[in-house]
Amino acid sequence: PVTRDPVERMVMNALTGGKGLHIDQLQAETGLDPGALAVSLLQLELNGRISALPGRIYRSKTIGTALSGY
């Protein structure tokens, strides 16, 4: 399913290219407050768009498609 949520899109754009980012790096790159970021990460993980890795690292499962609305 394609999301139209702008917060989720910001997170996916930060994860473009398959790079894994620590939650603190994601917060710095997106400028989101911790609560909004946590909700977005959970929703994206439940939808199968991202993977949560050990050490609070997150990585996109949809490499290179975030900018197009994946």
Describe this entry's structure for a reader:
By secondary structure, the chain is α+β, with helices and mostly antiparallel strands. It has 3 helices and 3 strands. It has helices spanning 6-14, 23-30, 34-46, and strands spanning 21-22, 50-53, 57-60. It has a 3-stranded antiparallel beta sheet with strand order 1-3-2. The N and C termini lie close together (9 Å). Residues 65-70 have low confidence and may be disordered.
Q: Could you spell the SSE succession in H and E letters? A: HEHHEE
Largest sheet: 3 strands, antiparallel
Provide the helix percentage: 40-55%
Form type: globular
| Count of β-strands | 3
Mean pLDDT, nearest integer?
A: 87
Q: What is the overall number of helices?
A: 3
Please give the order of strands in the largest beta sheet: 1-3-2
The secondary-structure class comes to alpha+beta
**What radius of gyration results from the CA coordinates?**
10 Å
Proportion in β-strands:
5-15%
- Low-confidence stretches are 65-70
What is the end-to-end distance?
9 Å
